[in-house]
Design a protein that fits this description.
652 residues; mainly alpha; three-stranded antiparallel beta sheet; globular
Length: 652
Amino acid sequence: MYSPQRRDFVSVTLSPNDGQVYNNSKTLRKQSFWRKWKQLPRLQRSLILFFSVFMLICGIIAYLNLAEQWMTFTEPSIARQWEHSYSKQKLANPAVIPAPKQEDDSHQHGLPEPPPQDLGRRFPNKRGPPLLENRRQKENVIEPKVELGDDKLHEAGKSIISLRGAMMESEHNTDPLPGILQKPTNPVAKVEIEQKQGTGVNSERKKAVIEAFQHAWKGYREFAWGHDELKPISKSFAEWFGLGLTIIDALDTLWILGLKEEFEEAKKWVANELSFEKNVDVNLFESTIRILGGLLSTYHLTGDSIFLEKAKDLGNRLMPAFNTLSHVPFSDVNIGRGVAHPPRWTSDSTVAEVTSIQLEFRELSRLTGDDKFKNAVDSVMKHVHELGGKHEGLVPMFINTNSGQFSHLGVFTLGARADSYYEYLLKQWIQGGKKETNLVEDYISAIEGVKKNLIRKSEPKKLTFVGELSHGHFSPKMDHLVCFLPGTLSLGAHHGLSPEHMELAKALMETCYQMYVQMETGLSPEIVHFNLYPQQSKDVEVKPADRHNLLRPETVESLFYLYRFTKDRKYQDWGWEILKNFNKYTLVPSGGYTSINNVQNPNNPDPRDKMESFFLGETLKYFFLLFSEDFDLINLDKYVFNTEAHPLPVWT
């Protein structure tokens, strides 16, 4: 037998590209990597991509932080640069006050621009609940930023701040005028002399406030007219709602300061240009206190029906916010489409948002005869009054719009997200003729809760301050926003509540003043931490992320109340010191004032290029009223201020 035939095979490998062998080329490696990547499960690929993007973002943030710190060490002294440019300026003649006159353009002079500076990171700077601060603002331009001047005149070795001299007029060109700087009459020096003589002090101080307002208004009118906020350094504007916030917020201030010509121009804009028929989301809280409150206040001061018509239009457009299962309103409303919604990241609203719109909506019902506005906000207060989750009168910071229940329980503060809830308890009671007992009972209970849980004394000066409570742990952290409390306490005492409230108000007023005095610029940071240990030398500590100043009004507001009720002139003197420091470190020569990033560095306060609308609507208004001896100018027995300093009448 023959065995099966054996067959042999030869394997031949044919390589592409003219017989070239495999050489581990990049192309082949990429193809191999891609095949392996596609073989991975979708979940693994998603996780890898997520962590890659996360690490990239962390790297960018770390780079920006390091770059900002490096720039801080490498930037030249702002004082030396500004003195060089300031020596070339020529000051315009001070404005005639109080009767404003149209300035002659032929007398305007150009001003040199301060040297450029990189401001680094932007911090959120919206007033009110910080959840609102994450809203991105649309800006029309992005230009290089410049440093503020250290607005000084040196005389006899002592720095004197010129308020009238700061009112410098400029043409559109920025070339410095040749010649020698002429020293202007210095109103601050004049006030100090008159103070020693005991004559004319507050008259001059009121004039200084008017000039500060005119300087701020000049910048807004020239560079941001009709837009929400002025960016004074870049001479541009920022939009939030696109509704001319600064104009509306400043209407009643213009009237109170007697700036009738500027008021008529603003009124014309409201009548002809202001329209709420816009496809834009607005925040219920901010649009109520700034726009609705400003329009209602101006209607009461002037009697002009155009402001009431605009207020009614806005009020109707805000009502969809209350269309929730719990009747706790959504935070945002599209006033053009009539659709409301919570923030994209949560279904919660802050307690301050939903309980600090009552004064305005109640007054709108009284004026229009339509109870729907009052009923909507009254139901919110009734609901919060009956809710559990409070701690001895103190409320948590958040409330869910779906369930109507408090959320994030166990955290209690009088700062952001909760502050104006306590303020509006008292002010609604006053507004309604002191008839709504639930409101005042909740207010008194809350103040007792503050005294028991949040009040401490610092070391070594024994300053009385208001801290925060988080799940039973006390934190010595106090927001500048809390400085509304001395004024509110004194207002309650004036209206018949416990005299102990007035004593606590005085102690807290001293603390808020020290938050300014203990800073190198004389301006308060956004947040401070108080020292509780005797061995330390300073009462106040400021963290790097908290040392910015936003031109906030709360301390000046409380100084106004304390002076009205005690007639102690030290409160006027404290306010005057603060006003001088605003002019020294935040005034922008071409027009406007800017918030700053660093209150601890007088040589480089690091301007943020933003003038909030509340600087005109609140801060300067309270300065003027603080220095006024006419207590019938916004009589506190006849008017109650909303949380944006817009006075509304007490019901009789």
